[in-house]
Design goal:
By secondary structure, the chain is an alpha+beta fold. The protein folds into two domains: 58 residues, YefM-like fold (3-Layer(aba) Sandwich), CATH 3.40.1620; 39 residues. It contains four helices and four strands. The chain has a four-stranded mixed beta sheet with strand order 1-2-3-4. The longest helix is centred in the C-terminal third of the chain and has 15 residues. The protein is elongated and about 55 Å long. The termini are far apart.
Amino acid sequence: MEINVKFSIFVPSRYTLKQDIMLVISSREFRQNQREYFERADKGEQIIVQRGKDKAYVLTPIKEEDVYFNAEMVKRIKQSIKQVEEGKVKKVSTPEEIRDLLGL
């Protein structure tokens, strides 16, 4: 069984708002038709899988920029470790030093 839920939100006229349709399906429906719902999520549809009376999950595709530890992040972490090993760090221990470091 599918339930389509249409959202309507008031926003000032100077803003543009795209109305999205959210599809709510049962976990059984999802299991039986996974491929269809993955494809629909890939196309931008919001899919919610209802599990029992009090649990629900959102089906959302993950993009490269969504993954926290992408290649660029790993590179930056390795650079930071190297800087620590080389002693290129600034130690702060007081609230005043922290504010100065952050420019507050």
